[in-house]
Design brief:
The complex is a heterodimer of chains A (166) and B (422).
Chain A lengths: L6 H24 L2 H17 L9 H21 L15 H5 L3 H11 L3 H11 L5 H8 L3 H21 L2
Helix pairs in contact in A: 1-2, 1-3, 1-6, 2-3, 3-7, 6-8, 7-8
Chain B lengths: L3 H21 L6 H15 L5 H21 L14 E8 L2 E8 L5 E7 L10 E3 L5 E6 L8 E9 L5 E12 L1 E7 L5 E7 L16 E6 L5 E5 L3 E4 L16 E12 L6 E9 L4 E9 L6 E2 L4 E7 L5 E6 L4 E9 L5 E9 L7 E8 L10 E3 L6 E3 L6 E2 L2 E2 L4 E4 L2 E4 L11 E2 L1
Parallel strand pairs in B: 11-16
Antiparallel strand pairs in B: 1-2, 1-28, 2-3, 4-5, 5-6, 6-7, 8-9, 9-10, 10-11, 12-13, 13-14, 14-15, 15-17, 18-19, 19-20, 20-21, 22-23, 23-26, 24-25, 26-27
Helix pairs in contact in B: 2-3
Classes of the chains: A mainly alpha (166), B mainly beta (422).
Chain lengths: 166, 422
């Protein structure tokens, strides 16, 4: 996104228009709202430090950066012992937000949160952001075939989990 | 092994749950709080860096937070409304009206109610408010004398089971049609057809020229009247070739579909003008101010959209934001019929977009066409054109529009367009 204005103004505009969606994207991948906000904040801080050098549509970069940030966080969590952030019964929603959803939807979200991170990433990009397989492949740095098979395994796992749910 | 049908159903449920969750997620009130939390957590989550790099990161975050605080208001939170979780379909079985509550994700019937001893109505007597938990409909009991209509409300649980049915508002003389309940469920807009005796199957009522809004708590009714007829001079009578004694064309107006803007402040009215003896019809879409209390429809309305090119079968409903969703069936050549569902922005100079388009080589009866929308205007249901006819007539199911295609909704019967609401 070329701009003749100050980089901070461009970032402010991007922040205003993209932050909410990016936080939700990260929240669905991490099943943790607070951590999701941190990840998105990190992305914008790094963008600000680099002077916002984006051309064209910034969304692919931002989404890729958020997904990578989520992966980094999940890797660190596995290394840090005693990670005991309290989980709501229906991550990434708070208990109050979860109460606003039907039981069916809560089950689906809980099943999604239980999936391995890579499958969760693909399913969230596909069904929340409605990205195509090619776009997801570009964001994650994998082949479209890998996206397809990961999505299929993810959906199959969800289907099994939901079938077994009371 | 997971079947294709299970894949599709799971995908639908996942998309629905994600959209719904995105809708309820609360936003942090102040991005400054986010930055402050980031600074506090920096010590815990930053990877091992030199002290100088850590200080730089924290300083940058603080500066960014300050810059953002000075330069913009609350971050945008325009999340699209989630697809309705339930929809209601109607069917007539052995002279009984059956209302089925169905789950959108898989079409499963979660609740059902039936009524007997009624005048049969085919359309326009079912509507839903924005809660995704209340459906409203009108019943017309058979009677020896004039027919009277009464509104009812069905309330459902989060699982789609019917938890209550109650009469609302007051009795109305005549047959009500084109029901549209306000998004908050407090008022009902409708038209009234002529009173009929109970004779079984009831034909579609003739177009009426008045719009009514009833307060469902008090039963108070306000009425607005369209212009019954007008004498207009066609545009071709102006200009250098115009004749001095051009014939005056008489136009008769009728009122059609009604829908509420998502904020409940305007009632969107389809007013049709039929140019007599020329077989052409135009559509004017008006936004009526319900707070005006009644009187003249044109005097208390704004013109939103006008389709004057001989609108054959067309109608418009309130769309999301400041927009309309319009439906039109056109002849595309001698043997082709085209169906179009279009989103028309009313402000901002944005372009119109085609939500759904279909071409059929089979002549289709125009009375089978139409669209339904949820109270947000975002989610639209349409019937496809029929390419083939089975022994029972049309076999196609209605579907909700997304990504340029129809996603079938179970329980929408073939043959006639039955009422549906969500």
């Amino acid at each position: 996104m070329k701009s003749s204005t100050r980089p901070g103004d461009s970032i402010a505009e991007l922040f205003r228009s993209q932050r909410a969606e990016l936080v939700r994207l990260a929240a669905f991948i991490l099943s943790d709202r607070g951590a999701a906000e941190d990840v998105v904040q990190d992305v914008f801080v790094r963008l600000y430090q680099r002077g916002c050098p984006l051309d064209g549509d910034p969304r692919p970069y931002l989404r890729g950066a958020v997904v990578n940030g989520c992966r980094s966080l999940l890797r660190r969590r596995r290394l840090i012992r005693g990670h005991d952030e309290k989980q709501s019964p229906c991550p990434p929603l708070t208990a109050e937000e979860a109460a606003m959803l039907s039981e069916d939807r809560r089950q689906v979200l809980a099943a999604l949160a239980a999936l391995p991170p890579r499958r969760r990433e693909v399913l969230v990009l596909r069904f929340y952001l409605e990205m195509s397989e090619a776009e997801i492949a570009g964001t994650l740095g994998v082949s479209p075939g890998t996206v397809k098979s990961t999505a299929a395994r993810g959906l199959a796992a969800l289907a099994r989990a939901l079938k077994e749910a009371p | 092994m997971t079947s294709y049908h299970e894949f599709r159903r799971t995908a639908d449920r996942l998309k629905d749950a994600l959209d719904a969750a995105a809708g309820v997620m609360a936003e942090c009130d102040s991005h400054v709080l986010i930055a402050e939390r980031k600074v506090r957590r920096a010590g815990r989550w930053l990877p091992p860096l030199t002290a100088a790099a850590s200080v730089l990161a924290i300083a940058a975050a603080t500066a960014l937070a300050g810059h953002l605080a000075r330069n913009h208001a609350a971050p945008g939170t325009s999340s699209a409304p989630a697809r309705p979780e339930f929809y209601m379909t109607t069917s007539w079985i052995a002279s009984r009206l059956v209302l089925d509550v169905r789950r959108t994700a898989d079409g499963k019937v979660t609740g059902s109610a039936s009524f007997s001893g009624l005048l049969r109505q085919e359309e326009g007597f079912l509507t839903a408010d924005a809660s995704d938990r209340k459906f409203f409909f009108a019943l017309v009991p058979c009677a020896a004398g004039a027919a009277f209509s009464r509104f009812y409300r069905i309330t459902i649980t989060d699982l789609g089971r019917i938890s209550g049915t109650a009469a609302v508002g007051t009795r109305i003389r005549g047959l009500v049609t084109d029901l549209a309940v306000a998004p908050d469920g407090s008022r009902m807009a409708y038209r009234v057809g002529p009173s009929r005796r109970c004779d079984g199957y009831m034909p579609f009522p003739a177009g009426q020229i008045s719009v009514h809004i009833m307060d469902l708590s008090s039963g108070a009714i306000h009425t607005w009247h369209a212009t019954t007829a007008a004498a207009v001079t066609p545009a071709s009578t102006f200009g250098p070739r115009a004749k001095n004694s051009a014939p005056v064309v008489r136009v008769r107006n009728t009122v059609g579909r009604l829908s509420w803007a998502a904020d409940g402040r305007s009632l969107i009215v389809n007013e049709y003008g039929a140019i007599l003896r020329r077989g052409r019809q135009y559509l004017a879409v008006l936004a009526l101010d319900p707070a005006s209390g009644g009187g003249s429809l044109p005097a208390h309305s704004r013109l939103l959209w006008y389709q004057g090119n001989g609108c054959g079968t067309c109608e418009a409903l309130a769309g999301p934001g400041d927009s309309l969703t319009a439906f039109e069936m056109q002849s595309a050549g001698t043997k082709l019929t085209r169906l179009l569902v279009i989103r028309i922005p009313l402000t901002g100079g944005r372009a119109q977009t085609v939500l759904y388009s279909e071409l059929s080589a089979t002549p289709v009866g125009v009375d089978w066409a139409g669209i339904f929308a949820d109270p947000s205007g975002r989610w639209v249901i349409a019937w496809p054109l029929a390419d083939t006819y089975g022994p029972r007539g049309r076999q196609d199911l209605a579907g909700w529009i997304s990504g340029g295609r129809l996603h079938p909704l179970a329980g929408t019967t073939p043959l006639f367009r039955n009422d549906i609401a969500w």
